[in-house]
Structure prediction request, 374 residues.
Amino acid sequence: MLGLYVHIPFCRSRCSYCDFFLITRLDHVERFFKALSRETELRRKELEGRTIGSIHFGGGTPSLVPLRHIASWLDQVSGLCSFSPDVEIAFEANPEDLDGNLMDDLLGTGVNRLSLGVQSFCDRKLLALGRKHTAAEARSVTDRAMRIFPSVSADLICGVPGEDRTVWESDLDAALDLGPHHLSVYMLSLEPKTLLCRDVSRGLLKVPGEDIQALMYEVALETMEQQGYLHYEVSNFCLPGHHSRYNLASWKREEYLGFGPSAHSFLKTGGRETRFANVSSLSGYLHDPGNTLSFRENLTGEERYTEQVFLSLRINSGLDVEFLRKDNKLGQSLPETIDRFVRKGWVREDSGRLYLTGKGFLFADLIAGEFIFG
Prediction:
């Protein structure tokens, strides 16, 4: 089974915290989709004979572009390969774009999972994040989406400037009152070169410290567990059967193809595992969509092992202890390291597998790094 990702790089403006590849001009939309069609045709050999289990339209802001382009690309791909009967077609959207009949039209193109870039149901937080919609719009759109789509996901951010535990609990309650099938909870990170990072470094804004963010994360774990949500990945919670199929497959190191500028791909061919990505340049992509790779690398055995450990610990299916023993550099001290993390309450061991606890998810990368490198 193969997953597909399409990066649609257009946004009305750049949010203060965002470091994704995007452009804020919309006059290249037509040329972009012509280039996307050309890239897809040039890569047909990667698609032919494959079955597609999931498709994810991300960005950028996919909800900004005319839906006829989305429908046309899906038709093109379906002519090159087959879709599984229960294929998940997910589409990222901002609340302010979903007026009129757009949701019904999206459903008509085949989209069956809507991923809403809500980020917050609190006006003060939305203002601090530079979002263009209001809390009332976020609530109205989420409520309407729940009546239209089989699966609805919403993104939430905690740790916003000026936020405390009370504000975060109120935000969570507002989300859970609407009952989306899936929630992604992200702790705000200060990415270099973003406006937010510059403002914080200049002392113009102050974000909650790591201890406060960790407390907010633990509040989310407890609150959503009480509401029946499964914590299946570090930042992701779902009601039964509503996990993100594309993302979970990626974390399990299953194959996927990325289309559009900055999109990444991962393929397994003839015993080799290859990662590659398109250039993060719209002009370069438009000029020659069939020759825009920014890198291509065949993974070594050590890199495969490292990826497997890091990614397995991020999800709730855990990591096989015998696999962990293979190539880690801890040798005889591995059991002691495992026991130390168990005593800290970060890891639990069950039937030969290691699972991170709710608190352990906060230190997932640290734990994986120590297991691998010591």
In short: The mean pLDDT is 93.
